[in-house]
């Protein structure tokens, strides 16, 4: 089964299980990969209908399935990823003597990969992203890009290599007109421009916001707009600085899943590096998590390998420290710290998370939240 057939099958399964919202987004990804404007128009029309009749779920699924059948007949040429899009070797950046120094850092990333860049405030995430984006010069090391086509000027480079900063600039006019402006800069014909822009508006859940102005959008929707604007330029390497900062928890998950899906496009894949404080969410979708501490780079797996069998559990409960120490006594508790918000319990090698849960349950501890953070970068933030 080809990748394209697999995707269609996945969408049909989502529809069958009535995971319609997710299914519809994945359905749009299948449509986008056809690069066929006739298909785009059908999806745009269906999205408009969907917004008018939000309760007609079964009918929506039926209509989407008809379009999926057409998509399945389209030959989709798959992009073959071979070499990294960027290779950084021993990059060092210093802001001056006795001030912050980043690096040396070496990394490479291929299209279809997502890297999460995490670390506490002021540890060099923005500095690294800006160096990779060629917005900031570095003092030592080498940065090599391998774009599909050689860029002829800086406008061309800025299309392939896109950096979205934490704070984006204000724009004027409507959301839709601003998106159309992007494609008109590339000489796209008016009809194609309208269709591509509406497809992107549909994909990023901006359908009901397309006529709004900058000041009328919430921060989360401004970020969605920025992503839509960026993706219309078909970048090859996308660098996002804290894209989740203004989003609610659900919106964070949706945007990350969307980004992952878009990076994974069959014929137009992208390499993505994003910085974030949302560790779990980022870890879930990232192929690699890079942890920066005082400008030094660590891969999550290298750090965890050092004591990979230790069990570390975060627990939020209304219970006295002495009580927790008492009930965990038989589980080889090594230390229990309280970081102001919750407890972090460290157990020796042979303790299982299920035993911790069982013990908490057996003693009727009123647990508000608990999580096994042994394999998460979170463990470096709590200690
Ligand atoms: N232009 C500059 N001149 C001097 N020092 C700077 C400059 N820009 C950043 N720094 C310093 O470099 C360090 C790293 O900053 P950077 O913004 O890269 O960190 P960050 O991990 O992105 O932080 P945050 O999570 O708060 O955004 C900080 O100590 C900061 O004060």
From TrEMBL:
GO terms for molecular function: ATP binding; ATP hydrolysis activity. The keyword ATP-binding applies. SMART domains: AAA (SM00382). InterPro entries: AAA+_ATPase, ABC_transporter-like_ATP-bd, ABC_Transporter_VariousFunc, P-loop_NTPase. Residues 86-319 form the ABC transporter domain. The keyword Nucleotide-binding applies. It holds the Pfam family ABC_tran. It comes from the Bacteria. Keywords: ATP-binding, Nucleotide-binding, Transport. This is ABC transporter domain-containing protein. It comes from Aquaticitalea lipolytica.
